[in-house]
Write a structure and sequence with these properties.
By secondary structure, the chain is of the alpha+beta class. The chain has one helix at about 60-80, and strands at about 5, 10-15, 15, 25-30, 40-45, 55-60. The chain is built from one helix and six strands, in the order ββββββα. The protein has a four-stranded antiparallel β-sheet with strand order 1-6-5-4, with no helix packed on it. It has a two-stranded antiparallel sheet with strand order 2-3.
Length: about 80
């Protein structure tokens, strides 16, 4: 498992600031940025009085597949409940 702690100011998002993401959210990078390689990362925690650092954890392809499967299962259950 790859875990890195970076300055939150080192990543600029199209739709806002890294600090706008909640812990547990995924960050998908098309190209290396802020010391992170391209790929999918999970926001693990913020650090500092002003959340000026963030720990990110690299998400593997198997974990992405599992997350998608869980989301699909949840949606199926929600649609069944709504019928």
């Amino acid at each position: 498992m790859t875990t890195l702690t970076i300055a939150t100011s080192s990543i600029e998002l199209d739709n806002g600031d890294l600090k706008d993401l909640g812990v547990g959210n995924l960050l998908e990078l098309d190209a290396p940025a802020g010391g992170l390689s391209a790929g999918t990362w999970r926001l693990g925690a913020y650090h500092g009085d002003f959340q000026d650092q963030a720990t990110l954890i690299r998400v593997t392809a198997a974990e992405i597949h599992q997350l998608r499967r869980e989301s699909a299962d949840w949606l199926k259950a929600a649609f069944r409940a709504a019928e």
